[in-house]
């Protein structure tokens, strides 16, 4: 059954466009359940494979509610992207990196990104899904497109402060560094099953993750530090 047919049935068996009766339950809670269900479903099935019927069932609500709050599959997917990316951006800016000593700021950023990615499988899955779409939906979100420019600028200030204090080398590019931190914190999560099998290691083991976190932090600090 197509989404249009599903919506038509949801409007009434007689074909009348009757107003949707809203649940007496908390509307914001219902909307949040649909959003979380969408994040899970899109992450597991991709944009093309996800179905609104499955999302509504996962959310434990009538499909009419999905269309009422989000308008349809595409709009819900965009809202899901907005949620996972906005959460990352807001938490990054809350780090207040320029208020720390340069080395402390780098350590905080590395540990934050490592922990956030480890604890946010939905971000990992949805970012992978959006890459299969070549970023066209993320690009259409004006509040998110290019928002990392400000963070990279902040990281650049941290690096310059480290140079002034004779702590950091002077030729580190802030964008390259950020992408390197993200990459080192990402691959063992996005490829944990295949890497785990090929290397005979449980990459979800708590001690292994702690060791990996230390390893990534040491690598980044070693790279940015000024050599005597």
Q: What can you tell me about this protein's structure?
A:
- There is one protein chain.
- The chain has 2 domains: 3-71, Homeodomain-like (Arc Repressor Mutant, subunit A), CATH 1.10.10.60; 78-224, Tetracycline Repressor, domain 2.
- The protein contains 12 helices and no strands.
- The model is unreliable at 1-23 (pLDDT under 50).
- By secondary structure, the chain is mostly helical.
- α2 (27-49) packs across α7 (121-132), α5 (73-93) packs across α7 (121-132) and α6 (102-119) runs parallel beside α10 (174-190).
What's the short version?
The chain is mainly α and 228 residues long. It has helices spanning 3-11, 27-49, 52-59, 63-70, 73-93, 102-119, 121-132, 136-139, 148-164, 174-190, 192-199, 206-224.
Please identify the oligomeric state.
Answer: single chain
CATH H-level homologous superfamily name of the largest domain? Tetracycline Repressor, domain 2
CATH uppermost class of the largest domain: Mainly Alpha
Shape call: globular
Q: Strand-residue fraction?
A: under 5%
Architecture of the largest domain, according to CATH? Orthogonal Bundle
Give the helix level as a range of percent.
over 70%
**What's the domain count?**
2
Radius of gyration from the CA trace?
Answer: 22 Å
- Reading the helices and strands in chain order gives HHHHHHHHHHHH
Tell me the number of helical segments per DSSP (H or I, 4 or more residues long). 12
Structural class: mainly alpha
The average pLDDT is: 86
How would a textbook summarize the main sheet? none
Sequence stretches where pLDDT stays below 50 over 5 or more residues: 1-23
**What is the β-strand count?**
0
**CATH domain fold name of the largest domain:** Tetracycline Repressor, domain 2
Distance between the termini: 68 Å
């Amino acid at each position: 059954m197509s989404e249009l047919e599903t919506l038509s049935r949801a409007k009434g068996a007689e074909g009348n466009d009757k107003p949707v009766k809203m649940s007496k339950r908390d509307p914001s809670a219902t909307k949040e359940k649909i959003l979380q269900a969408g994040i899970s479903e899109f992450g597991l099935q991709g944009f093309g494979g996800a179905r609104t019927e499955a999302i509504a069932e996962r959310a434990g609500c009538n499909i009419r509610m999905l269309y009422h709050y989000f308008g349809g599959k595409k709009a819900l997917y965009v809202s899901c992207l907005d949620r996972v990316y906005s959460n990352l951006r807001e938490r990054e800016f809350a780090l207040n990196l320029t208020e720390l000593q340069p080395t402390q700021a780098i350590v905080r950023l590395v540990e934050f990104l490592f922990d956030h990615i480890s604890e946010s499988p939905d971000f990992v899955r949805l970012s992978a899904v959006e890459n299969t779409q070549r970023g066209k939906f993320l690009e259409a979100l004006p509040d998110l497109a290019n928002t990392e420019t400000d963070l990279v600028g902040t990281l650049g200030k941290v690096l310059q402060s480290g140079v002034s204090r004779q702590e950091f080398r002077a030729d580190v590019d802030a964008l390259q560094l950020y992408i390197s931190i993200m990459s080192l914190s990402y691959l063992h999560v996005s490829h944990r099953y295949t890497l785990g099998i090929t290397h005979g290691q449980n990459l979800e083991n708590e001690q292994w993750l702690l060791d990996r976190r230390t390893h990534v932090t040491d690598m980044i600090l070693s790279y940015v530090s000024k050599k005597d």
